[in-house]
Amino acid sequence: MKYINRYLHKKILVLGLAKSGVSAASLLHKLGAFVTVNDKKPLSENPEAQGLLEQGIKVICGDHPIELLDEGFELIVKNPGIPYYNPMIKGAIEKGIPVITEVELAYQISEAPFIGITGTNGKTTTTTLIYEMLNAGYKNPLIAGNIGTVASDVAQKAGEHNTIVIELSSFQLMGIDAFKPKVAILTNIYDAHLDYHGTKEEYINAKAMITKNQTEDDYFIYNADQEIVARIAESTRAKTIPFSTAQVLNDGIYVKDGAVFFNGEQIIHTSDIALPGEHNLENILSAVAAAKLAGVNNDAIFRVLNTFKGVKHRLQFVCELNGRKFYNDSKATNILATTKALAAFKEPVILLAGGLDRGNEFDELVPSLKNVKVLITFGQTAEKLERAGRMAGIKTILRVDNVESAVPQAYKQSEQGDVILLSPACASWDQYKTFEVRGDIFIEAVHKLK
């Protein structure tokens, strides 16, 4: 890591803990800053804060006292999940205190270049594919961000011979200043996180931040089939690499005659790709482009695509039981993700869906439900999803308490040849701490059927 002096003897507030806050506080302390940590969780229930206290870092827990902002802080590092309308953040901005996220710190100390991936859907699969391809090509990748380890932890261990492959959310990107990936990828943009951003325009602007600081020496890989994304590409200074599943591109990556081509060179036949789903083809195209830019050979790329079957909780095949195939797509936290999951199957589907109610209806999902023979709902959105199911003409619609009780009910309603799919179309927070917890409970319930 680079031992920078810019934070030496500076007063810095780390707002909100979780993994990124702990990492940021420890790193800033190591760099000689006077760090104060503020977290809403009481100290007695906060082992992370207790650990920082033992390092000699000042810790204030239990609430976010606005008067803290009068203590002369020169910088705030906020947890990405804290929105900008939070009174502490609004107050800091009014006082002219810079606010960043931990990703910016990681960039400032890193000796390794970054490949950054963002978008509404497909980030995790794309990030994982790139990591696997670079690894197969002996390019010494490290994986960071929303997937894997906190970026500033990874950056402290990375050297010039490494490449950090990082998944980036819009929340993280809103808090960057100088962060500049060598290769940036924008997979797609759809309506999401409007409760955090307020407007779609702000959400789009946050995603566009991934290429804000790029120069002519960098690369921007983008979805040429989406007008919103293509417009962002028009304003970047980086070299642009478009990808498309619908059109042949002269200087990009695309699908033609059942094969993937990069700048006119055939990479792999789509029939040799193990990862299911038309939507995953977009993820594959952007990942292959990034791997080629990193110097990975076609044999290594082929080996990964020929064997990689998906990421946990992302259309993950769990098992086959008495002719029924179970898939865990708990990461499908919006309508679009569930639409794409349903499009991956020609077999009859028993769909398990429901979760946090963000105020939207599910009319957009109706056309994708034509292959669904049974709909099983749970959570806050159960009634809304049942309405969509009736609109789609689904004859069997059942409501259960939770994911665990949905699984045996789904099996009871199923026949040989059916797909039983958890693809909730909603966030998990009404019943489960994370989508990972929700997915793990589904997997455990499936294995109990055995």
Automatic annotation (TrEMBL):
The residue ranges of the Mur ligase C-terminal domain are 313-426
Q: In which pathway does it act?
A: Cell wall biogenesis; peptidoglycan biosynthesis
- Any signal peptide, and if so, which residues? 1-24
- Enumerate the UniProt keywords alphabetically: ATP-binding, Cell cycle, Cell division, Cell shape, Cell wall biogenesis/degradation, Cytoplasm, Ligase, Nucleotide-binding, Peptidoglycan synthesis, Signal
Pfam assignment, any one: Mur_ligase_M
Q: Name one GO cellular component term.
A: cytoplasm
- Residue span, Mur ligase central domain: 117-291
Positions that bind ATP: G119, T120, N121, G122, K123, T124, T125
Q: Which InterPro entries match?
A: Mur-like_cat_sf, Mur_ligase_C, Mur_ligase_C_dom_sf, Mur_ligase_cen, MurD
Q: EC no.?
A: 6.3.2.9
List where in the cell it is found. Answer: Cytoplasm
| One record GO biological process | cell wall organization
What would be an example GO MF term here?
A: UDP-N-acetylmuramoylalanine-D-glutamate ligase activity
**Which reaction(s) does the protein catalyse, per the Swiss-Prot or TrEMBL entry?**
UDP-N-acetyl-alpha-D-muramoyl-L-alanine + D-glutamate + ATP = UDP-N-acetyl-alpha-D-muramoyl-L-alanyl-D-glutamate + ADP + phosphate + H(+)
Q: What does this protein do?
A: Cell wall formation. Catalyzes the addition of glutamate to the nucleotide precursor UDP-N-acetylmuramoyl-L-alanine (UMA).
Family named by the database record:
Belongs to the MurCDEF family.
Q: What is this protein called?
A: UDP-N-acetylmuramoylalanine--D-glutamate ligase
Whose protein is this, by species? Bacillus methanolicus (strain MGA3 / ATCC 53907)
